[in-house]
Amino acid sequence: MAGRPSKYEERFCDEMEAFMAQGYSATAFAGHIGVSRSTIDNWAKEYPEFLEALNRAKAKRLLEWEKIGLKVAREGGTGGQSTMITFGLKNMGGCEWFDKQQLEHSGKDGGPIETVELSPLEAARRIIFALEKGLREQQGK
User: Where are the beta strands (DSSP E) in the chain?
Assistant: First the structure.
């Protein structure tokens, strides 16, 4: 069973690069030419030249956003410009623009966390002890 013929045309490579160089996303380009984002993704899988154009287009889009961001950083912005630029760069900038947060847990004085293996019976005893202690504290208030 054959599917619909593809709407893909080689000219979309250059058109996408020019469009995204203005700061628009691949999804916006899809809307611009009247296809869905999944069509863009499928074309990238099926046509190597389109995938390469998409990668160049993403780099050009990031360049535009960085230019805008630098302008706001140098000259100031109004409203939510800084927030929008930050959000945009973090989400499209890949490994160059991200907000990495790392949590580390440590034990006493920064050392390793001590662990103890308990038998099921000992674990049950400790749970009962903690529950009884909590009840005593509640009644004492």
Answer: none
